[in-house]
Amino acid sequence: MTTPKLLNRINIRPAGDGDKDRWDAYVRGHPYASAYHLFAWKKAVEEAYGHRAYYLLAEEDNVVKGVLPLIYFNPPFISGCLVSLPFSDVGDVLTDDEDTEEKLIMEAAALAKRLNVKFIELRSRQARLSSFEYLNLPVNRRSHKVRMLLELPESSEMLWDGFKSKLRSQIRKAEKNNLSFEWGGSGDMDSFYFVFSRNMRDLGSPVHAREWFDAVLRNYGKNIRLGLTYCGRQLIGAGVVLSVNNMICLPWASTLREYNQLSPNMLLYWNFLKYASDNGYKTFDFGRSTPGEGTYKFKEQWGAMPVPLCWHYIVMEKSSTGLDEAPSSGRDNMARLWQKLPIGVANRLGPAIRKYISL
What is the Cβ-side half-sphere exposure of residue 13, based on CA atoms within 13 angstroms? Predict the structure, then answer.
C-alpha cells in the first residue's frame, strides 16, 4: 500500500493580523527570505493603496511550514492579477519542502479562479520553483532582469580597502564638495518626498503616493532606515534601506539632478554600505537592473554581482499571456510627456496611476 504524501497533512489558510509574529518568525528563519516578505509589506500596501492582500500560511500541527504572500491588483475596467510581490523585485513562496510549495501554489491557483484574475505573478530569485505540472495551466517566464548583490566583509574598513581607487576618489569628491550625510526619521518625510517625487517626474515615471512611504516607515520599525544627503541645509539626496536576517536592500534612492555633479549619490550609497558592513549584514541588495544599462554599471562599480531574477506567470485566462506590456515606443512617449508636467500636477496624478503599476 502506498504511503500518503505529507502534502495531505498540510493545512493552508489566509493569515490574519494576529498571525503577524508567527509569519515574521518564519520569514526570519528562512534562508531565502527578503525584507519584502515581512508582514510589514502587507500592512503598507493595504494602508496606502487599499489593495486586498491574501497572505497564505501553511501549517502542520500548528507549526508554520511555508508562506506565500499575494496582493490582488484589480485595476478599473480590466481583469486583475495576483502578484507576489508588487513594488518589489522578489516575493515568491517560502517553504520547508516541495510538497508544501505545491500545496501553497495550488491554493493560490484556486484563489485566482475565485477572483477571476488573468494570471498569478511569482517574482522569484530562482529559475525554477517547481515543474508546475500539477496545475495543468500555462506558465510563462521572464528573466531579463537581475538583482545586483554585494557580499559584504566584516567591516567598512575592509570594504573601503577593497574598492578601486577610482571609486574611492568619487566618494571623496562628495566629501570635498562639503556634502554631508545624516540618518532621518518620520519628521524628514516631507524632505524625502520632495527629492524622490521630483526625481520620478524627471525620469518620466508616476510617483508613489506620499502615504506609501509613510506606511512603509510606520510598519517596518527597526527594519527600515532613511538616509539623507545635504549640501549645506539643502537636502539633495535621499534613500531608504530595508533589512531582514543578514541582508539589507535599497528599494528607493534619488538625488536632485542639478546637484549630481557634486556626487551626492556616491556619499549616499557609501553610507548605506558602511552601515550594513559595520552592523553585521552579509549581503547588500542594490535592487533590480537590466544588464548593460546605466544603473547596472553604477551598481557594478561597487562590486555588486548580477543574480538572475525569474518572474513566473501562471496564466488563468486563455487569452492572457501574463506578460502584457505596452510597446517601448509608447512608454517612451508617455515618459516624455510626464517629464513636462509641473511637479504639483505630477504629484497629484502620479499616485492614482502608480498604485496599479506593480513594478
Answer: 12
Asked if 85 and 108 count as a contact pair (C-beta separation under 8 A), the reply is no
Q: Which of 289, 306, 273, 249 is nearest to 163 (CA)?
A: 273
List the one residue out of 266, 85, 301 whose CA is nearest residue 253. Answer: 266
Residue 129 has pLDDT above 60, yes or no: no
- Cell numbers at 20, concatenated: 503577524
- Which residues are CB-neighbours of 83 under 8 A, at least 6 positions away? 70, 71, 73, 91, 120, 121, 123, 358
Tell me the angle at which helices 210-220 and 39-49 cross, rounded to the nearest 10 degrees: 150
Q: 149 vs 234, 284, 288, 304, CA distance in Å?
A: 31, 6, 10, 5
DSSP lists the bridge partners of residue 59 as 11, 64
Residues spanned by the domain of 256: 147-308
For residue 3, tell me if it sits in a domain. Answer: no
Q: How many domains does the chain have?
A: 2
pLDDT of residue 326 exceeding 90, the answer is no
Burial call 331-348: b when 16+ CB within 10 Å, e when fewer: eeeeeeebeebeeeebbe
Yes or no: say if 84 and 70 are a contact pair by the CB < 8 Å rule: yes
Do the bridges between strand 224-231 and strand 283-289 make them parallel or antiparallel, or are there none, so unpaired?
A: unpaired
Instruction: DSSP for 66-130, please give it.
Output: EEEEEEEE--TTS--EEEESTTSS----EESSHHHHHHHHHHHHHHHHHHT-SEEEEEESSS-S-
Task: For residue 28, give the CATH number of its domain.
Answer: 3.40.630.30
H/E element, 324:
none
**Cα 80 to Cα 86: distance, rounded to the nearest angstrom:** 13
> What is the per-residue pLDDT for 128?
58
Query: Which whole-number Å values give the CA distances from 222 to 51, 89, 185, in the listed order?
Result: 25, 21, 11
The per-residue pLDDT for range 107-122, each reduced to its tens digit, is: 999 999 999 999 999 9
Same domain, 268 and 333: no
Whether 220 and 120 share a structural domain: no
